[in-house]
Amino acid sequence: MAYSVTSPAEPESSAGLPSAPASSGPPEVGWRRYLWQAFVAQREITPLLITLALFIFFSIDSPNFLTSLGLNSAAGFAGPYGALAVGEVLVLVLGEIDLSAGQVFLFSSWVMYWLWSLGVPVGWAIVCALLACIGIGIINGLITVYLNVPSLVGTLATNFVLFGMVLIFSNDTEATPVPGAIPPQTSTVVPHVGFFGQMFGVWEWSEIIWVVAIAIAVQFVLTRTRFGVRVISTGGNLLGAAEAGVPVRRVKIMCFVLCSFLAGLVGIVDAIKYGSLDPGNPGINYILYAVGACVIGGTALTGGRGTVIGAFIGAILIGVLEAGLNIIGISTNDFFVYIGVIMIVAMTLNGWLDRLAARTRTG
Amino acid sequence: MMDDTPEPVGPETDAPKSSESSEVVLEVQDVTKSFGPLSVLRGIDLTLRAGEVLGLVGDNGAGKSTLVKILSGYSSQDSGRLLLKGREVHFKSVQDAAAHGIETVYQDLALIPQLPVFENLFLNHEILHFGLFHVLNKHKMRELTKRYLDDINVNVPNVNAEAGQLSGGQRQAIAVARATRTNASILLLDEPLAAMGARESRLIIDLVRGLASSRRVSMIIIDHNFAHLFELCDRVNVMQDGHITIDQLTKDTSLEQLTELMVSSYRSQLQNAFGS
Fold first, then answer.
1. Domain B24-112+184-274: top CATH class
2. A52 touching B (Cβ < 8 Å)
3. Which among A117, A273, B113, B239 counts the fewest CB atoms within 10 Å?
């Protein structure tokens, strides 16, 4: 009659898995294992090592590379890619992609220029241009979240619309951003330009400093704040995050907004730095390098995972490669082949390191 | 509407029966639900007490998942009442049900595989350093996670391990722990032991029994497997054809008896259906 259940009411019995202590005990050679784990876990290390190797190679091969000209040109390539890549990581972690950011990067300086030509002071023109970028981010987000258009398609469409708008409103003629108000880049600090102007592209290193600051800030947000946890959880398990009460739609829109805003901000700095606006310059070129930088840096396109520092290093890698090949006199055509090969190698290596990391963590 | 009226309708009022002394936390009264011409629930009456683990068993199509969806706030009943501690409730959403302390734990749905255990445990209830920037206090979250998991005897190798690296049983345990850590007093578990080895099952069985007895968490567990239910539950309700046909304390019955009851009830239904 009385079917005895194996004494269920014994809450004191530890429910631990017998295998658990095996991994919590100290490993045999502590520091070496720790170093190995750090190497495996930190996805930024691989692109960093490749970048350093390239840097050393170019420096030995051509002493010119280490001059301010060489470094400046590397930073010149890395700046735009880096800015775009850092913002793009947020969107990639969501499992989405923003292909319009490259065009936003160019579009924002056009908005600034148009407003300035209408008599709006430079400062306000910049603010309005950035607001326009935020608006584009909101539109990208709304298209993705509410119209259920895959972001790959939705943002590609936004990209074309913006490109067309630039061509239409510029009458297909080149322009100089805010001539007179802020002189274009000079190799030295121009005394009569204030801090604001210096930081908005007049000083030659201003762009890369913006990008470094943005990368650090976004990395902090992604790894240390509630918003970062929400981004990762939305990208890692959309349904689970929503069940837990994470406002997944708002998080997605927010990421598209940040991506557009950062692209627009550095776009203005970049335009002032080079002192010219070319309507025929397609933004899609920039964004594909930026996505490449993210991938090289260790961000998977599957969502839930990404590293801002990695993306930044990836951008520097592309910059060093492009500038280095220029300086040592190899045809820039080779650059595309190198970049392609590096992307495949990086992706393969990342997958391999992932599996290794999983084994080290549980083993 | 408010407290229990001394109507004869309620199957069990607050007056404790001889074998069960704890208060009733959830009462389902005459709940029905149809989808078009198909009536899935035809008057469900069910009672859940504090700290009680109730097993819900029945064939596919018996209406178990429909009932659980109503209890978890995912959908609403056509008629009948839900009473939480004697008070009638109408859930507008899953979040609303959770706010009332009822949570459903889905094994593979709940956790974010890329986040460490401690961030999963605090997901959307993070502890922050500064309010303005929402900076995480990871140190404190780790400490509290360790302490809480120790409390309820859940052992994971490391609270920093990503949830995706854990075994199925450990993930299930973390999901249950998260639900009970916040405010859930009633958990709905759907086949918590599905696809688990003996050792993994032990982890969940001990966790469920421990939470029920030491923290007075009540649970409704759906499972096809009678043996699982006998290990996990205090009481078993059998659902057949939109009704609860059998309500037995596990200690008063046996696996064989319950199976026999179910089969004979099933036979009589068949006979009714075919009129033989």
1. alpha beta
2. no
3. A117
